[in-house]
Amino acid sequence: KQWYQRRVAITAGGKLILELGGNNAITVMEDADLDMLVPAVCFASVGTAGQRCTTTRRLMVHETLYDEVVRRLINAYKQVKIGNPLVKGNLCGPLHTQAAVDAYR
Hints:
Strand content: 5-15%
Number of helices: 4
Helix content: 40-55%
Largest sheet: 2 strands, parallel
Radius of gyration: 18 Å
């Protein structure tokens, strides 16, 4: 076990990385910069329309920040423009063409 951790640390440039199957959570600590957090969470959650394995699926927020983070995220999500992802300004939309939909059927 210790050898494996050391090997992973060497492979990752000296930092220990663990794959724990956590469904892409973002942990928000008490000293988080919310001005940086909110746009990052919003894009990580909807920027790929949930089509990537790296899409954020849950947040673990420190209890002292919870209400403020929720308030800011609600405001951010209200501004998300949904539509054709090829149109400038749209953040979220279907990723398939009609041909891809037909091929799926």
